[in-house]
Amino acid sequence: MKKGFTAVVLSLMSIFFLTLGLTNSVKAAKVYQIGTDVTYPPFEFANDQNKYVGIDIDLMNAVAKEEGFKVNIKPIGFNAAVQSLESGQIDGVMAGMAITPVRQQTFDFSKPYYKTGVIIAVAKNSKIKSFKQLRGKKVALKTGTAAAAYAQSIQSKYGFKTVTFDDSDTMYNDVVNGNSVACFEDYPVMQYAIKTGLKLKIATKPAQSGYYGFAVMKGKNQVLLQKFDRGLVKLKKNGTYQKIVNKYLDTAATKKERKDNSSAKAANHTFWGLLQQNRGALFKGLAKTVQLTVLGIICATIFGVLLGLLGVVPHKTAQGIAATIIYIFRGLPLLVLALFIYNGLPSLTGVKISAFNAGIITLMLNEGAYTAAFVKGGIEAVDPGQMEAARSLGLPFSKAMRRIILPQGIKIMIPSFINQFIITLKDTSILSIIGILELTQTGKIIIARNLEGFRIWTIIAVIYLLLITLLTLLSKMVERRIKG
Predict the structure, then answer these.
(1) In order of start, what are the domains of the chain with their CATH numbers?
(2) Which of 185, 293, 369, 466 can bridge 329 by disulfide, Cβ–Cβ 3.0-4.6 Å?
(3) pTM of the entire structure?
(4) What Cα–Cα distance (Å) separates residue 104 from each residue in 110, 210, 219, 359?
């Protein structure tokens, strides 16, 4: 019995540490990891070839080329980028980040590279022209932005309600659809969005004027910060900086973008047209979702089965350990667990974890805890007399469990396994919060470009339903073979 208990505990520990071994603790020599937003045109956005472009992207690449260093720009979303910077996962953030006194307490900023200000945007037929008219009404904000902070600072004065979103496009659509009467946004961003076809209008003059800057953690990556400042000065002197800004913001550029958007919309307004236009991006997102699902299921199943077995070992300590682990990881929301593993653990340990590996660990712990619960329940559902009879015949606990109890318990567990596999597939969408470009995150990026929210989400919903159907059919086939 003690040997069986020890074996299960050692197996659990091996699985856990092998999974942690996925963490990327190797530092890439001379390649700086730079986080950015996913939908913040004209500063960062995916073009019609689903390649990331924008003022921030081009400027960072130009500075790196000028100063002779390499960067890997990661479009993971503003919130995820800021949290990743705080936890040491990335080296800097270039995402239209306004320089504010509060942020300067945590981050060191470069010299300002673009002037901004906060405005409110409303529907085209709205009569709102001032903050006073927002009293008692709901406004939309984007989490973590300077515009959102400004809105919250004047909320009590003007008496409006707020709703927050993780990306700009969803925030804009909330106003377009009439769910909110206005949104707070940076002036140049909203100006560009309206010029290129967004059905809103600017209702107020820019308030709380400020500047965008490139950010690193306070006291860290000072060499990178100095290189950026030097490169920015050079680019402004040789005219490259203005060329980059004009590329996205002058009248000709915005007219061309609007014309391209209108032409693309006219040519690809059907479901089939959108699918054809975005098949490459959708396929990559689908591949990432399938990869997460398969690896998540494998790791969660192994972890869950071992943890479930630990819970039925006739040893109070073992049962207590299993019950505690199941309680913790079933009790934590998947989103909270993902953020803790991706951002919290690196802050605590100093070891970097890639978003993908953090996602796998999250699925293993969360889905594995649920798996352990029904494995334990399935074993306990087998008539206790079976184990008593086996032990009375002289079979050790481990052999009786393997030969007699588990074959019966597995048949009870199979429906729960199938259900858990489907849940794992759907839960991969939550991992977009840590910047994984799976199917859901891919959809957000595409919608930010073409504003075809209904059609794109319908396409993604159909893809998920097809995946779930295939997974269910496969699981049913396995179930018939086992029961047969």
Answers:
(1) 2-24+278-483 (1.10.3720.10), 37-112+213-263 (3.40.190.10), 115-211 (3.40.190.10)
(2) 369
(3) 0.72
(4) 11, 13, 11, 31
